[in-house]
Every structure is written in C-alpha cells, then in structure tokens.
Amino acid sequence: MSKGDFLQKNWCQTDAERARRSLAKWYDSHARDLPWRLTPSLYGTWLSEIMLQQTRVDTGIPKWHLFQELFPSVEDLAQASEAEVMKAWEGLGYYRRARLLHQAAKVVVSKGGFPENREGWLALPGIGPYTSAAIASIGLGEAVAAVDGNVQRVMSRWGGVTDPVDSKTGAQAIQGVADAWLDAARPGDHNQAVMELGALVCSPKQPRCAECPVRFTCTSADNPDMWSVLPRKTPKRKAARWDLTWHVAHHGNQVVAIQRPDTGVWATLWAFPERAPSKSNTPSRPLIPDVVHALTHKRIHARMVGTAMTSTEELHTWAQEVNGVVMTWEECEAKAWPRLATKVWSELKAACMAGN
Ligand code: SF4
C-alpha cells in the first residue's frame, strides 16, 4: 500500500502534518541527553544503534563509553581481536551482534570508509532495515522512516493498526503510517522523536496519553480498549526448556573452562564443561542454588556443580579429557562468558574457594 493510498484510506494529510509538527516541538524540549547525541558521529551512532537492539538504554550507555575508550575509531575496532571485542561486549548479551559489528568494522575499513547511504549500510553485516534507516537518517540526513519496536507501538496505537505488526499486512500498514509521519526536513530528529515518544510516553503498559503531543490525532488516546491490545503480535511459541549442568572442577585458585564451538548458542564464549569429572575421588556438590536464565528462544534451568580435585595434575588430566583449559579465576574473568555465568560469578567463585 502506497503512502498516498494509506492516508486516503485512513486519515487525512492534515492529521499526519499536525502530529509531525507537534512531535517535533515536543522532542526539542524533551530529548534525553544521550552521549551519542551530544557529540554526534557516524561511528557513535552506529555503535549506539547496535548496542541498543534488545538492550536498555541505561545498560547500553556505559558500554558505549567503554567501546569509545577501547576502540575510539572504526579502524581501532577493525584491528582489535575478536576476543577483545567479545570481552568488551560482555554483559550486553546477544553476542552475535558483537561478532557482526566487528566483521562490519573490517568491511568498512577495507572499503575506505562508512557507507554514504542507507543501501550501503544495509549491505554491512549485522545491519537490517531498521538499523540502516536509523543510521542513514540520523547520521546522513536521509529521509527514511526507521521502524523498531517502540515505533511499531506508537504507530499502531496512533493509527489503530489492528493487524499483527509481525504479519505482512500489519508491517506494511505500520510502515505506511511511519512514512506518512516522516519529517523529510529533519528525518534523524524525527525518527529519534518517535522512538523517544515510545520510550518515555507511549510506554507498553501504561501510556501517558494526557502528556502526549500527538493525542489530538491518536486513535487510541485515553482508550485502554485500544492501547492495551496494540501493537498486536502473532502469538509466540513457548520458549523451550534447557536443563543445563555446569561442572566446575577446581583446585586452589584454578578451574577447568572450555571455549564453546563457533556455532550455536553462546558461540565462541567460555563456559564450564557439561560433563562430570569421571575419575575424581571427591564427590560433586551443588555450589549455589539453581539459576533460571532466559534466552530468546530458550529458558535455561542451570545447575552449578563443583568438584574439588585433589591435585593440579588431576585438574590438567580432566582438562585434556574435555578439551578444556586450566585457568585461575582471574584468567577466566579476562575472557568473555555468557551472562548466565557473569551474573553468578562471585557466588560461584566463593563457593569453590570455600570448598578447597
Ligand atoms: S495518545 Fe496515548 S496511545 Fe496515542 S500515541 Fe500518545 S501515548 Fe500513545
């Protein structure tokens, strides 16, 4: 459906124009002072857009600063080892983003600079329709509407789009509203304004319609029967349960850790073996209470079991059996581990040290 058809069928141009003007005014006085907005650069915008996918802004800010410190330019990022990039990313989750960011940095450097339009950005690893539109509009001033989860929520409520936003018709309708709203004179500010509206006002559970700059043209304003069901999504399959046991074989200040394979869950990150040490004379024991940890499509029920080995030799023999490495806790901490490990790390370490 073209932008013109969409507007004719649903609203008049005047509503879109009113909403656009009111939103711009609101954004000028309400935009948050986020670090990548204070000193704008293509590199900083790109980092922020990748980091904020499925990550909260307050978690992303310190990591954004860390990346700027460790890898001040795209050349520095490209030259870093994958292990360094993964370590810096630790805590943000969804490590595939870090791997693709690193690959994209290498492509950018090999081509002699950042792409100059949305299409060029879309061709880079890890960049999809939303991210390319966001970077092109914010960093290059290209007039394209960026549609992420926040924008879907605002647009579906404002326009009363009742088709699931992840269906073809729903996605087209949302894109139609977003295109109709777009302020071609300030596309970057406009896209950020819609996202900001979604983050600060049109929130998922309790939108603050009374404070909303577009309420006079919104289909769902002050109408819980509408905003509470929008955006509609196709029902998801229940996350599969994964019963995981990590066997932490330890002696003194040393443990056996393994690096996970190049593909699959937690690819290339470090972890503990899932097999129990076979020849230890010491019985295994649970180190900490079981942990439940959610990934996108899996719900992990993790058990951390410790085995105090009787000697360093025994530890090394076990490491060979599982293709692992004997490391001190401090050496382990310098590697990149899944969030499941980092969130229980201190308890785990304390429990092992107490059992030695
Ligand atoms: S009026 Fe309410 S439902 Fe409509 S966009 Fe604003 S906050 Fe969201």
Net shape: elongated
Strand content: 5-15%
Estimate the mean pLDDT confidence.
Answer: 91
CATH architecture of the largest domain: Orthogonal Bundle
Bound molecules: iron/sulfur cluster
Task: Give a brief rundown of this model.
This protein is an alpha+beta fold and 356 residues long. The chain has helices at residues 3-10, 13-30, 35-38, 42-51, 57-70, 74-79, 82-89, 96-110, 118-122, 129-140, 149-159, 168-181, 187-200, 224-227, 312-321, 329-333, 339-355, and strands at residues 240-251, 254-259, 270-271, 285-286, 291-294, 298-308, 325-328.
Please describe what this structure looks like.
Helix 2 (13-30) crosses helix 13 and helix 10 crosses helix 13 (187-200). The chain has helices at residues 3-10, 13-30, 35-38, 42-51, 57-70, 74-79, 82-89, 96-110, 118-122, 129-140, 149-159, 168-181, 187-200, 224-227, 312-321, 329-333, 339-355; strands at 240-251, 254-259, 270-271, 285-286, 291-294, 298-308, 325-328. 36% of the residues are buried. Strands 1, 2, 3, 4, 5, 6 and 7 form a 7-stranded mixed β-sheet that branches. It folds into 2 domains: 3-227, Hypothetical protein, domain 2 (Endonuclease III, domain 1); 240-355, Alpha-Beta Complex (Nucleoside Triphosphate Pyrophosphohydrolase). A hairpin with a 3-residue loop joins strand 5 (291-294) and strand 6. The protein starts with a helix and ends with a helix. The chain is built from 17 helices and 7 strands. The protein binds iron/sulfur cluster (SF4). Iron/sulfur cluster (SF4) is lined by residues 154, 157-158, 201-202, 207-209, 212, 214-215, 218, 220-221, 227. Iron/sulfur cluster is lined by residues 154, 157-158, 201-202, 207-209, 212, 214-215, 218, 220-221, 227.
